[in-house]
Amino acid sequence: DSKFDVVIVGGGSAGIATAASILKRNAKVTIAIVDPAQDHYYQPGWTLVGAGVFKPEQTRRAEADVMPHGVTWLQVAATGFDPDRNRVELADGRTIAYQVLVAAPGLRLAWEKIAGLEDALGRGGVTSNYRYDLAPYTHRLVQQMKAGRALFSQPPMPIKCAGAPQKAMYLSCDLWRDAGVLPKIDVEFHNAGAVLFGVATYVPALMEYISAYGIDMRLESNLVAVDGQRRIATFVQTKDGATETVEREFDMLHVVPAQVSHDCVAKSPLAAASGFIDVDEATLRHKRYANVFGLGDGAGTSNAKTAAAVRQQAPVVAVNVLAALEGREPVADYDGYGSCPLTVERGKIVLAEFGYGGKLLPTFPAWLVNGTRPTRAAWFLKERMLPPLYWHAMLKGHELLASPHRIGRAA
Ligand code: FAD
Predict the structure, then answer these.
(1) What is the mean pLDDT of residues 232-239?
(2) How far, in Å, from the CA of 294 to the mean position of ligand 1?
(3) How distant, in Å, are the alpha carbons of 67, 122, 269 from that of 36?
(4) For ligand 1, is residue 371 a contact (CB within 6 Å)?
(5) How many helices (H) and strands (E) does the chain have?
(6) Is 18 helix (H, G, I), strand (E, B) or coil?
(7) Within the chain, which residue ranges are assigned CATH 3.50.50.60?
(8) Is domain 3-107+261-406 annotated with CATH 3.40.50.300?
(9) Dihedral sign computed on CA atoms, order 382, 387, 389, 394
């Protein structure tokens, strides 16, 4: 079977950014990227597609067009990992060998965990910004709705971009407010978690919007079933240690599914108990296999699963991979940075930026962007700056807004 210096499984945000960062430092490294996908998505844009701000096509490129120059792309799924023999198994029956492996397959949206959901999605008022093809439907539903009940759900953690379920809700409410119909719409937020947002610093600003939009917030309320025909959503509500089942009729339902590790990882020696890739939180090196690294949504680290996190992780993994190729120990550390731009209304964002343990890690000085308050500067960043930064810098190995000081051990 063929052998490469580096095999990267997954050509999403993390896989492409890491390959580009490695090649920027050393163009001679031979890299194979394994990914069956036809297209590459800028998923952070889907929130704005759901709000009618972006066209879906702005968030998609052909996978071939984002492949870094010099990489061998194997357009096939990885089906198994054999880290004891330095090999990856592929869906077409081949295996490929590596010196160093980077596992970056993202995570799997487990739609099937909510009974009836797969049949209901995409019609009868049931939508989700977590799918490219459905985000435009969110916008259509919001535009059509003049009265009734709108439900927004958030599953148990971990999920990618933990703020996205409520972002969809705030932007919908903002459109209804402008259309003058918000007073006639009952908006409910059913969050399986016990808090509105995991880092307490940002909660007061968000609560102001919950109250201004008149949202009925229900914590520890987990969506378990959807009856698309009768338009009834079933939740399991936890209260004082007891649980009860609550049925809610709806006119519109925005769902975010539970999110799990891909089977090919979860059933492999790479998995932690959670099913995600068992890497060290700082070096992103596998805890048991010294020539394996993991990053992105598939990693079992405790950071916010975001493209912003990947922006910081990719250069760290790149320098640590190069060190590993030379038989050296990791030289760089990741601090857990992740970012969640909470779109509280069109034109304003609460820019949550934090690392491991909820430590605040603002990129900008507070006079420019005060992350604990809604700001126009943060919206400008999200709408105008971050997409080009993603396509033209992050995916090309130009490490803008990926602060060198985060490469802790003198790269
Ligand atoms: P992905 O980009 O999902 O890529 C995974 C890749 O692996 C895919 O190309 C897939 O085809 C491939 N793959 C899967 N299985 C296999 C296999 N078996 N073999 C080979 N290849 C495989 N982040 C932010 O920073 N800010 C935001 O505002 C934001 N908002 C978001 C809003 C929504 C609605 C969503 C869905 C996400 C949002 N994110 C946001 C999160 C961000 O998109 C992800 O964190 C990021 O894409 C993670 O990168 P990744 O490479 O790990 O996974």
Answers:
(1) 97
(2) 14
(3) 13, 25, 22
(4) no
(5) 11, 21
(6) helix
(7) 3-107+261-406, 114-257
(8) no
(9) positive
